[in-house]
Amino acid sequence: MTIEFAPFIPWFVLAMLAVLILLLLGVGLMKRVRGTVLRFVASAAVLAALANPLLLQEEREPLSTIVPVIVDRSQSQEAPGRTAMTDEALKALTNRLSRFARIEPRIVEVKNPPTNDSPSTRLFEALASSITDVPPTRVGGAIMLTDGQVHDIPAIGQSLGFNAPLHALVTGKADEFDRRIEVRQAPRFGIVNDPQELTFRVFDDGRKTDAPAEVTVLMNGEEIARLNAVPGVDTPLSFKVPRGGTNVLEFDVAGAPGEVTDINNKAIHLIEGIRENLRVLLVSGSPHAGERAWRNLLKSDASVDLVHFTILRPPEKQDGTPINELSLIAFPTRELFVEKINDFDLIIFDRYQDRKNVLPILYYDYIAEYVKRGGALLIAAGPELASEDSIALTPLSSVIPAAPTGEMHEAAFYPRLSKEGERHPVTRGLDGSASEPPAWGRWFRSVDVANPDGETVMTADGGRPLLVLNRSGEGRVAMLLSDQGWLWARGFEGGGPHVSLYRRIAHWLMKEPELEEEALKARAIGRTLEVTRQTIGDKPGPATIRTPSGKTETLDLTETIPGLYRGERRMDEIGLFTISNGDFSTLVHVGAVDAQEFKAMVSTTEALAPIAAATKGMVARLDNGNGGIRVPDIVPVSSEVRVTDNRRMLIRLTDETVLKGVNTLPLFAGFAGLAVLLFAVSATWWREGR
């Protein structure tokens, strides 16, 4: 209760009256006037009545004590047994906290944000957000349900925003063990077929062992090494980048009995393959109108080192010109086709015919072997292919996909895509191919061939093969059965997409991944997984996705353009996904490769112990050792927590209240005030009467 005043007249008037009364009191006392004291009491009573004293009584209601309960729902909590343990502990905590009327629990479940590509467990951010609307004095403590792998633990001495204990209840078992693998140092780019070096390390968390672990290394799905790695020690790996573009290195360490999870037994590293300047050998049988089309295309590409020879003076050509007056060089056949043939990425025979005195017959065997071992051969043919000197009549016939009939077809035609060509990545979507007739110029002759192997992706007049692609051994061969492509280069009848066509043929021959007829590719854009299936066959059906946690999902693929099927899905998990479709399989990592969430999966009490001790809280495991859990008792205390209790969770009850109302009682109102005044006046009158 308190007393306040609500004067009927201003305070300065009351003050003047008080001074006057005191002066009269002093004068009366000095002159010994009878009744002075009674007069003073009566005047003071009247003055007090004018001041209107009020008796105030506040009605207050005690506020609840806020206790945030932060529940870790990150991916590391999905390890076997932890989710059930968390759910059971949360239920027990909720029941116990409900017994205390003055405690208000706030349950906050923390998941890896779907927009975060590098997930980590950030419980303290969630804790701070849960109490932003209350003053620090109302927070009686905080409880965390977690595996202990928390990545935003503040430094000791850094304020949590409240002065109360922080308790942690840890899931998992005390003797957990987990094996994981990480790529420590590795290049992001590498020259194709040049040696590269990286290091990786196997970790055995929760157990110290020197026993080596077997690690299988795969490059683009094919095994390239099998190593024994000592846990805790960096292991080097030498490898070569097999192709241009993105290459996926996968490291798979053999599991160990009793480990927590095998999610982190795999690691990947993406390395971009960069080709050195491609070495192309272009051999033109004789000068012709289309010779410069190939030369100009290859010379315009800065990534191509072109070696070009044109047979200007074959041995059978004798015109009497003295040798010393010729500015020509001899065709270095042995150097090109024996000593350095394997240095070339692509060999092009442009209207070349077999001249026994230029290229010995044995050298065609060398070229055929070069193709079978992985080389690339392009034959841009004209009338010479149908002649008696055709290179199709040499040992090259073992790799050439189409044998000429000996006839040339002379007629104007529009080059068209075949059914296979509409789906094949070399010719699919060529500018002008969608209309009928195609929106490009005509050609006027082609070489007749019989029963070509491989894929005929372009046709000439009457459906005759025009562009044939085939594999031979480990290599590839392409035959362009007309020498009229230069008409497109010259812009005849509007020209055509010769640059795009020639470049795609060359890149397909050199095994560019983007131009594979049958391929399964996947990439991650943030949390969105995009799967692409390229095929020249029938509809491939849905793709199968295996998530890092071992779940299996299916993804329908929709044909976007002929031969290209796509599907995408936003993924909830972060980590290494395996995508498969038929006989094809690929890997893709969603999110950051080095995400903290997967670096350690063993539950621990050590990470949170320092900050819990600093706040007089406790850290305890939920596992009771008998297949159940043990949740420590909750003990509310009315004052500040000054000591740590290792067996119970102490909660500081707040003394904060909220004002519900105020009751006022005027002290000089009603009969009580009137009685005081009457008594004072009556006493004065009685004294004066004597």
UniProtKB/TrEMBL annotation:
Keywords of this entry: Membrane, Transmembrane, Transmembrane helix
Transmembrane segments annotated in the record for this chain: 6-25, 665-686
Signal peptide segment: none
PANTHER family for the chain: BLL2462 PROTEIN (PTHR37947)
Protein name: Glutamine amidotransferase domain-containing protein
Organism: Ciceribacter sichuanensis
The organism's taxonomic lineage, starting at the top: Bacteria, Pseudomonadati, Pseudomonadota, Alphaproteobacteria, Hyphomicrobiales
